[in-house]
Amino acid sequence: MHRSAAAIEGWTASDTELLLGHLRGAGKTILTEPQALHTEVTKLPGLDGAKMSKSYGNSIAMREAPAEVERKIRRMPTDPARVHRSDPGDPQKCPVWQFHKVYSDEPTRDWVVKGCTSAGIGCLECKQPVIDAIVREQAPMHERAQKFLDDPQLVRNDPANDPDESEEGRR
User: Fold this and answer.
1) What percent of the chain has pLDDT above 70?
2) What is the largest CA-CA distance in the chain?
3) Is 116:106 a contact under the CB 8 Å cutoff?
4) pLDDT grade, residue 7 (50/70/90)?
């Protein structure tokens, strides 16, 4: 029994368009349709808890100095219920928790939840694993960039940046 593709449940017009493009073409898929890849956190809050934006001044640059990363994260707001160190908090209400969901492993997240809800840890203690993880993630970027910072002429000497060395320049 053959059914038309349009009769298949969940089949869309874009599916038909993709199939017809495949069949009328060379019979092989040249470009596959990209699919979204999301982590649990699709968007990190800014350092002030609002939308992260360089123009708002509440972001961390990819090559931010480690001391600056630490300063910025330490100044992030936390759960408003935690006025005093002895007040229990709720990680779900804290913007730092979104960073833990991206940068911390499961045991660290468990430690944060237990410590925050029981007031067993302070907010600065909670932020330290995030600081360490961001600095660790940025370290390879700092290393790769350092040779160009030390000798900016390297950028100008790169054949990919030289019009005489490009494909068109050699013809």
Assistant:
1) 84
2) 73
3) no
4) confident
CA-CA distance, 99 to 95, in Å (whole number)?
Answer: 7
The predicted pLDDT at position 122 comes to 94
Question: Which tokens is 86 given?
Answer: 């002895």
The more confident residue out of 97 and 42 is: 97
Provide the token pair at 22: 């495949």
pLDDT of 162 reads 54
Q: Name the token pair of 53.
A: 């934006």
The gap from C-alpha 87 to its chain's centroid, in whole angstroms, comes to 31
Residue with tokens 């699709």: 42
What is the secondary structure of 37-103 as a DSSP string?
A: ---S-SS-B-TTSSB--TTTT----TT--HHHHHHHHHTS---TT--STTS---GGG-HHHHHHHHH
Between 1.20.1290.10, 1.10.240.10, 1.10.510.10, 2.40.420.20, what CATH number should domain 66-164 receive?
Answer: 1.10.240.10
Tell me the C-alpha distance between 54 and 151, whole Å.
Answer: 27
